Amino acid sequence: MKIEELLTHTGEWLRGEGPSANIVMSSRIRLARNLAKTPFPSRSTKKDLETTLNIVEKIMVKVPFLKGATLFRMNELDQVDRQMLVERHLMSHEHASNPDGKGLLVSTEEIVSIMVNEEDHLRIQVMRSGLNLTEGWDIINTIDDTISKEIDFAYLENWGYLTSCPTNTGTAMRGSVMMHLPALVMTKQINKVLAAISKLSFACRGFYGEGTQASGNFYQISNQVSLGHSELDIIQNINGLIRQVIEQEEQARQALLVQNRPMLEDKICRCWGLLRTARIISSQEAIELFSMVRLGIDTGILKDVNHKALNELFIVIQPAHLQKIEAKKLNSFERDTKRASLIRQKLGGKDV
Amino acid sequence: MQCDICGKKKATVHLTEIVDEQMSEMHLCEECARQKSSQMEQQFGLADLLAGLSQTTPMVKESKEGMLKCSDCGLNYEDFRKFGRLGCSQCYVSFKENLSGLLRKIHGSSHHLGKTPYALKAENPVPVSSSAALLPSENVEGLKKQLQIAIAAEDFEKAAMLRDKIKGLENG
Questions:
Q1: What single DSSP character describes residue B88?
Q2: Which of B93, B92, B146, B78 has its CA nearest to residue A168?
């Protein structure tokens, strides 16, 4: 697959369905794995990195869920291409910024991706739509089992899977859930909820994971502890917490609808109008407006748009995507105008 | 809006910093933001957090620690404290004593209860540490079996954890 082919569709996990899809956009599970006999990537030689990439290339054909997958070598891609893979949530910023010796394996529907030679030799990721960590775990567990038949992983019985950073040691698993919490933000309860989450040793991050700020009322919640609990226990704990947050958000939405329906309708419809008419728009503003439109869909206030269309927009309005679509470099102002026109087009706005 | 640092380019990155309970906002262009973020990493990176954590655990004498080195990849323990990253799987053996306390600080435990690589499963059909992942975690019978194994292996820390878990399930 050529990287441009990614532009013809969006990841299967963005279809906007699945359990609690009105509040949970997506679920992600990742496992970190290292080869037992090779130094971790930060201390690998160029040759070691290349050997690891070749091993992955050789075994990928045997791995379930990876039929027809593509291995991208980072130093064969330009900066915009790499940024595009980050925007699609297939890999980290870190992976894009130091391309040497790094690779990314992407399955056809973008459900599975494997970063090769990031902080650890393998970072396997599975994405699902809605609240679906358990299904994600089943998939990633099968993939991991198959790979571990081919590769000797760094592992100690007492400490589990060994990772470059000790915060991942043990199961080396992180489950993350992307939640949309506009009503908790509007009713000013979000800080209370976030404080409770961090007390329970879960992490809360922004839309693009580690080091990013929350935008458009999207919050990514994940486990921090990876040692001392089984994978299924960790997933159950996350699920338990997420269900409570869902309940809080649902109550807040009800409260807004009951006490303040005209205000809520006004806010949502104005945002809808803005998106369909604006000529210049930043990605930050767009994401904030999408958040309101999404709430409009979930409360039944807006009927002419669905989650899938909106989820796709989240991806394609990002800078690298706009530049790939236009097939040329765009400066910040050009991107803002291109973005506005793309949104008008997708949301049935008028170009009058 | 112009970038606060260079004052030339358009600010596209918006930062909120809290220093000594004083909140300040910064609006930066992409280039200046990148510089700023590498500065921040140096200042407040995970490395410091890890180093901070490991300082609070009793360890091998300072002077000895300075010379502590991984027998395989040659990483200094001092460098691990600075950058927060280990160099290879052997580092876990070379720095075993220090890491044991650190892992407990981070995770509240230093005993793996998750899955086991396939190769080890095949050698050992009832591995001590993998059964928790394979059996449904609510299965009291499975946990009791693990408890017996842990006691037989004189792994009392793990035994205590399993005991509490079983108690929790039976009461719940």
A1: S
A2: B92
Contact B97, B59 (CB under 8 A): yes
Taking the C-alpha atoms of residue B102 and residue B54, their distance in angstroms, rounded to an integer, is 6
What is the spatial distance between Cα A228 and Cα B161, in angstroms, rounded to a whole number?
A: 9
- Average pLDDT of B59-65? 48
User: For A333, phi and psi rounded to 5 degrees?
Assistant: -65, -40
pTM: 0.79
**Banded model confidence at residue B39, pLDDT cuts 50, 70, 90:** low
Query: Is-contact A25 A13, C-beta < 8 A?
Result: no
pLDDT in tens, A125-179: 999 999 999 999 999 999 999 999 999 999 999 999 999 999 999 999 999 999 9
Query: Which residue on chain B is closest to A230 by alpha carbon?
Result: B114
Given CB atoms, is A337 within the 8 Å cutoff of chain B? no
Question: Residue B114: which of A117, A121, A156, A238 has the closest Cα?
Answer: A156
Kindly list the residues from chain B whose CB atom is less than 8 angstroms away from the CB atom of residue A160.
Answer: 112, 114, 129
Asked if B85 lies within 8 A of A167 by C-beta distance, the reply is: no
Minimal-distance CA residue of chain A relative to B131? A230
Contact A174, A226 (CB under 8 A): yes
**pLDDT of A245-282, one tens digit each?**
999 999 999 999 999 999 999 999 999 999 999 999 99
Min Cα–Cα distance to chain B from A173, Å = 10
- Chain A residue numbers with beta carbons less than 8 Å from the beta carbon of B88 are 38-40, 43, 154
Four-way CATH pick for A3-253: 3.30.590.10, 2.120.10.70, 3.10.20.30, 3.40.225.10: 3.30.590.10
What ipTM describes this predicted complex? 0.89
Residue A29 exposed, middle or buried by CB count within 10 Å (0-12, 13-18, 19+): buried
CB contact under 8 A, A42 and B87: yes
The segment(s) of chain A belonging to CATH 3.30.590.10 are 3-253
- Give the DSSP H or E segment for A286: helix A283-298
At CB < 8 A and 24+ separation, what contacts does B156-164 make?
Answer: B157/B110, B157/B111, B158/B111, B161/A228, B161/B109, B161/B111, B161/B113
